[in-house]
Amino acid sequence: MGISHHGRTERLDLVDPSLREWTCQVVHVDPERGVVLDRSAFYPGGGGQPPDRGVLLWQGVQTRIVGTNKGDDLYLIPAEGDPVPPVGTEVRGAVEDERRSMLMRTHSGLHVLCGVVFRDFGALVTGGNMEPGEARMDFNLPEVPPDFKARLEELVNVEVAADRSVAVKVLPREEALALPDIIRTQSNLIPADEREIRIVDIVGLDVQADGGTHVASTAQIGKIQVVKVESKGRANRRVRVRLAN
Description:
Layout: E1 5-6, E2 9-11, H1 12-15, E3 21-30, E4 34-37, E5 39-40, E6 54-58, E7 61-70, E8 74-78, E9 90-95, H2 97-121, E10 125-131, E11 134-140, H3 148-161, E12 166-172, H4 173-177, E13 196-202, E14 206-209, E15 224-231, E16 236-243
Parallel strand pairs: 2-5
Antiparallel strand pairs: 1-2, 3-4, 3-9, 6-7, 6-9, 7-8, 10-11, 11-16, 12-13, 13-14, 15-16
C-alpha cells in the first residue's frame, strides 16, 4: 500500500490524472476478484469518487473493465463474459475519457463547495457522494440563512471563475497533519497507519487530505448549479449540485 503503489500496481492515475492510455503487463489473475496490472491509470474508487471504467486491449482482443476490487492488490473487474488476458500478457490500458473527465470536474467542484462553506459558514463535511456531473455534500450546519442556496451558488461560481490552481503534493504524516484545518470532515478518515498523506490544494481557498483525481484549475470545472438544500436531521444539511456545462 502507499501513495504511489497499491500492492503490485503502480498508481499512474495519481501521478498524472490526464493519462488515459498506457502499456502495462498482467501480473496476476483471480477468477473471483479480477485482473492485477503492474501499472494502472484506472482510479479504483474512494472518497466518494466512483471507480473508472475502460478497456484492456491485447492480441487483438478487448476486455471491458467495469469496476475495481480493492484489497491486497488492485483487482480490475472484467465485464461478464469478456475474455481475460493471461498472466504475463502485455496489454494496452485505456480509461473511458468522458466519464473520468466529468468525475474530475465534479470532484474538484466539491472541493470548491467545501472550501466556500467552511470559509463563509464555518461548517464541516459529514458525508458526500458523486456521479459524473452531479453530487451531494452534507454539512454540519444548524443555522441556515434564508438566502443560503442562491448565495452559495454565487459564491461557489466566483471561485470557479477565479481560475484557482489545483495543486497536489504528498507530505509526511506529521507535516500534513500540522497544516491548519487539513481535515474538513467531521470525522478524521485518514488511516492511522498511513505514513504519507496526499494533499489537494485549491490555492487560496481549500487545502485538505484527499486521494482522488482533479482538474488543474477551477476554471476547468465549469459552472456549478446548487440544485437543492435539504435538511437531514437537526444540524445536517445536504447540498445537491450539478455541473451546468
